[in-house]
Amino acid sequence: MAAEAANLHALPASDAVRLLRSGAIDAAALVEACLAQVREVDARVQAWAFLDPDHARAQAKAADEWRLSGRPVGPLHGVPVGVKDIIDTADMPTEHGTVLHAGRTPSRDASVVARLRAAGAVILGKTVTTELATYTPGKTRNPHDPEHTPGGSSSGSAAAVAAGMVPLALGSQTNGSTIRPAAFCGVYGFKPTHGLIPRHGMLALSRTLDHVGLFARSVEDLALLAEPLVGWDERDPDTRPRARIPFVEVAAQEPPLPPLLAFVKTPRWEIAEEETKQAFAELLELLGDRVEEIELFPSATEAWRWHETIMDAEMALNLAREWEAGRDRLSESLRARLERGRAVRALDYLRARARIRPVHASFLELFEQRYDAILTPAAAGTAPKGLASTGDPSFCTLWTLCGMPAVSLPLMHGANGLPLGVQLVGPREGDARLLRTARWLVARVAGGAECARARASGPSTRASSSCSSSATTRS
Amino acid sequence: MAAEAANLHALPASDAVRLLRSGAIDAAALVEACLAQVREVDARVQAWAFLDPDHARAQAKAADEWRLSGRPVGPLHGVPVGVKDIIDTADMPTEHGTVLHAGRTPSRDASVVARLRAAGAVILGKTVTTELATYTPGKTRNPHDPEHTPGGSSSGSAAAVAAGMVPLALGSQTNGSTIRPAAFCGVYGFKPTHGLIPRHGMLALSRTLDHVGLFARSVEDLALLAEPLVGWDERDPDTRPRARIPFVEVAAQEPPLPPLLAFVKTPRWEIAEEETKQAFAELLELLGDRVEEIELFPSATEAWRWHETIMDAEMALNLAREWEAGRDRLSESLRARLERGRAVRALDYLRARARIRPVHASFLELFEQRYDAILTPAAAGTAPKGLASTGDPSFCTLWTLCGMPAVSLPLMHGANGLPLGVQLVGPREGDARLLRTARWLVARVAGGAECARARASGPSTRASSSCSSSATTRS
Predict the structure, then answer these.
(1) Of A50, A52, A194, A339, whose CB neighbour count within 10 A is largest?
(2) Vertex A100 angle, CA A126 and A308, to 5°
(3) Which of B334, B318, B211 is nearest to A353 (CA)?
């Protein structure tokens, strides 16, 4: 077992759970492997805002003792999870990426942290966030190239999973804060339906737009992480009592029919980089008759403005204390944004809010009539060079506004070798099925890439329309 | 049966239902009696915006044929109901009390109208509303004295029930539009918990503050009317799936312990008239140890401002079309209010909204620890003289803001002989129990009044603290 430990840190969580359950490994070894990887790479990546190795070891030891006592174990028993530093932990600081909250030590776990612990997880540490989960970067760098941004605001969570320091992590998304860093770091990201996972104990920016986000190394792992987090919490008024969603079971199923995807360029297609456009053209070719391009209704172009109005106004409410007591210690850009937010008219805010339902309803028609999911870029391109910006969230805005579930899949690469994310979006409440479709797409692309390899090494007898000819499709 | 018909119009709905079920009367006779009363008194009261006698008769005839066919009948089978003219009816105009919507004929029933029809009710006609359910009066007069306002905005519904023209009616309440006219007209009014009864198909002023309101001649009748109206409707996002609430059964129960009421003067006590203050002093004396006066938390004084901010901003949204296309035909006061609403800042609006939960939580503590209901005036006094104003809604504002259930009980009178309403308020979702407490209070006051009569006619041996000595307590 000691010999295996060297690679344990790179295991997908679902594999780790199987090994932990069978007793082939224990939580102590798994955590030790993660800590070793942190020592190995984190000086370069800087994914962690707080990490106390001894506290992580103590949790692992307690998990192992619990299992050895023969008591029932949860679905994440012994699995290390990173938690974005805007999500409260009773045993670690939570500093929100701002000096204004330096030294903040909440006395209670956020709902999601309590649910992680109930599922048996080891909270490895707190991951770096941008300033108050907005746009001013923290210290984290892209693990694939430290001169590039990891994306944000869940920078540390995405980078930690990508760099093999932890198999699972939690983040958040108010615009593109989960999908974008997942794409830039080349991991699997998942923003479930608004209201599915409670946000109590998490920094609030915008009740209408805030979501919990998930990071993992496979679709199966996203399902494993999502399942225990979903559910009603009276302290989050946007959650609802509902039947348990069997994420793991549904995500593992083969779709009864091959899914049909709706390729949506969105009104932001103009900012997509040339290689993104080319990569999607090749992906569409690979998918053949399983994808159709559709045009969005004209008013969709206004959705970005509606999102901005809502986010500005609600941030002005939720960050009023920071504004009043310490705005001189906020970044200039956040200060400007809050100033703008304070001036938003209620009428414009309410008008923007009132658009969400009809916009989602128009998507719902698409899903009910014909398509299993929307296919669209996760970002304009690969992670931009430089650390002064976390990149453009535009390709996430529309789906966040509507509270629709979205996943980012690391299926492609740019010419620079950096990951290029594919985003799938489903209808609200269609989360488990979206993961099932995502797993199908991952397999389909992997199969396509094998075709491409086969063709490269000799004449292929298979129809070329089912195979990608591009090196940008990940093998 | 023809001989009885002369008084059928004055029957409480629960009695009418029993007679209808037994076959002692039929719906045709009941409707005919109501129509006769309309002919008798409505020239003076003017409660109806629309009433087609033949259409009412046709509905009654259909109800009678249905019953005679032996098919199962609903809880309101054959009972006439008046519907405020802001609630859509597929078979009658719905004109919202403004020339801007003159001749408006919706093609579908509002959710509550559909539920009334499913319960077997006869929609007698549409009752007068103030301008767009706000503050500029319609034509209705107080049935007790036509020189006095009936209150508003549900003026016609309150007056029609009070004047014996219909046993039940629907209204609405965004500030004091059900409780106040019920008090001024001397009928029973009920504003259930926000979100309990769907508002789809009703003129929307304020999603946060709009409620459906109910009018009847007894607490039992309020329960009878409420029960079929409550329930989830996907077209009203503030309703929730929930178990059926057995209003009729619970309201009819004796409380297991004598209820304890919390007398709350509210920060508006200063505007209460002298005779209101005196009447409540006597009511408190009558209730003895079953009532305790409590002080509201200091921030409660701000609740009226929060209500105004929310109502102004949401009205500006919902009446934007009227503002844009026809503001010259709105009353000056509504135009001014909309102008003010259009200038509200989102930050102030959101702050006001954010106060609702904590304010309700502080009331919840009261209810959980000690009290069955809050006792407070329904209005500052009896209906004011004059028809230019519908009176002050202040004594309703706090409970409307919090979405708490409230009833107005016509238990007292002013020196001028006009009714003076007693308001009881419960915690959100505590509607059925509130009606049970209300029924207890009605009986207790009636019992007290008997004591008073007994004492007046000779020496009483009963403790005077359990009896009111005042002529202002209704017999």
Answers:
(1) A194
(2) 85
(3) B318
Task: Tell me if residue B177 is catalytic.
Answer: yes
Name the token pair of A421. 């994310």
ipTM score of the complex? 0.85
**Identity of the residue in B240, B345, B357 whose CB atom sits nearest the CB atom of A346:** B345
pLDDT tens digit sequence for B348-378: 999 999 999 999 999 999 999 899 999 999 9
Burial class (CB in 10 A: 0-12, 13-18, 19+), A203: buried
pTM of the model: 0.89
SS3 (DSSP) at A99: helix
Residue ranges for chain A with pLDDT beneath 50 = 1-3, 455, 457-475
Q: Domains in chain A, please, with CATH?
A: 1-421 (3.90.1300.10)
**Residue recorded with tokens 């994420």:** A247
Among B14, B111, B126, B153, which one carries the catalytic annotation?
B153
CB-CB contact of B403 with B359 (8 Å): no
Residues 6+ apart with CB under 8 A from B48: B38, B42, B82, B125, B126, B127, B128, B156, B160, B165
Residues of chain B contacting residue A313, judged by C-beta atoms under 8 Å apart: 346-347, 350
Length of chain B: 475
* Structure tokens that stand for A145 in this block: 């190239």
Which residue in B240, B343, B346 is closest to A344 by CB distance? B346
- Measuring CA to CA, which residue among B179, B263, B251 is closest to residue B439? B251
pLDDT at A217: 97
> Is B248 within 8 Å of B224 (Cβ atoms)?
yes
**Residues of chain B neighbouring A240 (CB-CB closer than 8 A):** 240
CB atoms within 10 A of CB A57: 16
**B384 band by pLDDT with thresholds 50, 70 and 90:** very high
Report chain B's mean pLDDT, rounded to a whole number. Answer: 93
* Per-residue pLDDT, B473: 40
Q: Quickly state the pLDDT bin for B461 (edges 50, 70, 90).
A: very low
CB distance B60 to B20 below 8 Å: no
Mean pLDDT (chain A) is 93
Among A14, A154, A177, A408, the one annotated catalytic: A177
The greatest distance separating any two alpha carbons of chain A, rounded to the nearest whole angstrom, comes to 70
Which are the contacts of A94, defined by CB distance < 8 A and separation ≥ 6?
A85, A86, A87, A88, A101, A104, A105, A106, A126
B146, with CB counted inside 10 A (0-12, 13-18, 19+), is: middle
Q: What is the predicted pLDDT for the residue at B1?
A: 41
B345 reaches A (C-beta below 8 A): yes
